[in-house]
Amino acid sequence: MSERVRAKITALGTYVPPRVLNNHDFEKMVETSDEWILTRTGIRERHVVDKGVATSDMATEAAKCALARRGMTPKDLDALVVATVTPDMFFPSTACLVQHKLGAQGLWGFDLSAACSAFVYALQTGAQFVMSGTHKKVMVIGSDAMSSILDYTDRATCILFGDGAGAVILEAAEDGVGLIDFEHEIDGAGGCSLYMPGGGSLNPSTHETVDKKMHFVHQDGQAVFKYAVRKMGDVCEKLLSRNGVTAADIDCFIPHQANQRIIKATADRVGLAPEKVIINIDRYGNTTAATIPLAMQTAMDEGRLKKGDLVLLASVGAGFTVGATLLRWTL
Ligand code: UT7
C-alpha cells in the first residue's frame, strides 16, 4: 500500500444547532430520569434544530467552517459526499441541496446511507477519489437531524439522539501520510434491530403509517448494544493486526458515540488506555453520521489530538453497518 497516493484530511469543520435539551427537559416529557440516562448512556444533553432547520442547513454550516479553515472557496471543491440517514427529503439528494446552498457550481456529489457508520464509509469513499487521482479536493460531510425522526413519547429512543454536522476536506497526501487502511462490513440480518419502517417503497406514507408511528426510529436497544460491543472490537482488532499496529501504538481512539458503555467496553477489549479514548456523548448524544467529526473536533479542542498522531476510528450502526479506519492525523 505504501506505493499508492494516500488521501489526508486537510480541514475539519463542525456545526451544532444552538438549542439544547438536557436530561431534565426529558423528565418533563417521558418517564425517565437524569440518573437513568447518564448511567445507562453517558448523555447529559444534546443539541436539536429549530423547526424549519434541516440536515442540509447544518451540513452547509459545517462545510463553510471547513472551507474557511482551509482558506478555500466552495468553487475549489471537486466532489461532495454527504453521509446522512435524515436527508431533507428522498430527493433531490442532500448533496445537491448543500451544493446549491454553498453556491459551488460544477461540483459533483451524492448522498451515502449507512446510518451511524456513514461518516467512516463516506470518508473512505471520498478518499478513493483522491487516491485514484480523479478528484483533488473532496468534501465529506456527516450530518443528521435525528430529532426529525424521533418519537418524543418513546423514552427508549428519544433520549438517545441529537442533531449536528461535521465536514472534512480530503486532498492528496504527497508525503504519504493520511488515511492508512479501513475495515468495513455490513450485516443486513440485523436490519430489524434498528430501523424506520415507514415512508419507503415497502411501506409508503399513509395515514395508517403515521398512526402506527412508522416514521420514527425503532430500536431493540439490547440487541444493538450486544452487537456493537462485539463487532466494534472485532473490526478494530482486525484492522490493527493487518497493519502490524498494537493498541499501544494508537494515540487517539475516536469511536461513534452511541453509548459510553459501548465505547468503554470496546476500548477495554482492544486494550486502549482511557486517556486515548475520546468521549463527548455527554454534550451531544448520538448524532449518527456526525458523531465522529464532532469527536475529532472535541479531541483537537482538548489538545488530545495532534498532527502526526496515529488515530483509530470505529463505528457500528443500523443495517447493521460496521467500520473502522486507521489514519495518521494531519491537522
Ligand atoms: O448508534 C446506533 C446504534 N445504537 C446503539 O448503539 C444503541 C445500543 N443500545 C443501548 O445503548 C442501550 O441498549 C440503551 C441505552 C438503548 C438502553 O439501555 P439498556 O441498559 O439496554 O436498557 P434496557 O433496554 O434493557 O431497559 C432496561 C429498563 C427497562 O425497564 P424494565 O423492563 O427493566 O422495567 C426499560 O423500559 O430501562 C427502561 N428504560 C428506561 N427507563 C428510564 C428504557 N428507556 C428508559 C429511559 N428512562 N429513558
SSE map:
Elements: E1 6-15, E2 20-22, H1 23-27, H2 34-41, E3 45-47, H3 55-70, E4 79-83, H4 94-102, E5 108-112, H5 118-132, E6 138-145, H6 155-158, E7 163-173, E8 179-186, E9 194-195, H7 207-211, E10 218-219, H8 221-242, E11 252-255, H9 260-270, H10 281-284, H11 291-301, E12 310-317, E13 321-328
Parallel strand pairs: 4-5, 4-6, 11-12
Antiparallel strand pairs: 1-7, 2-3, 6-7, 8-13, 9-10, 12-13
Oxa(dethia)-CoA binds next to helix 2, helix 6 and helix 8.
Architecture overview:
- The chain has 331 residues and is of the alpha/beta class.
- The protein has 2 domains: 6-176, Peroxisomal Thiolase, Chain A, domain 1 (3-Layer(aba) Sandwich), CATH 3.40.47; 180-328, Peroxisomal Thiolase, Chain A, domain 1 (3-Layer(aba) Sandwich), CATH 3.40.47.10.
- The chain is built from 11 helices and 13 strands.
- It has helices spanning 23-27, 34-41, 55-70, 94-102, 118-132, 155-158, 207-211, 221-242, 260-270, 281-284, 291-301; strands at 6-15, 20-22, 45-47, 79-83, 108-112, 138-145, 163-173, 179-186, 194-195, 218-219, 252-255, 310-317, 321-328.
- It has a 5-stranded mixed sheet, with helices on both faces. Strands 8-13-12-11 form a 4-stranded mixed sheet, with helices on both faces. Strands 2-3 form a two-stranded antiparallel sheet.
- Helix 4 (94-102) links the parallel strand 4 and strand 5 (108-112).
- Helix 3 packs across helix 4 and helix 8 packs parallel to helix 9.
- The protein is globular.
- The protein starts with 5 loop residues before the first strand and ends with a strand.
- Bound molecules: oxa(dethia)-CoA.
- Residues 32, 36-37, 40-41, 116, 155-156, 159, 194, 221-222, 224-225, 228, 258-259, 262, 286, 317 line the site of oxa(dethia)-CoA.
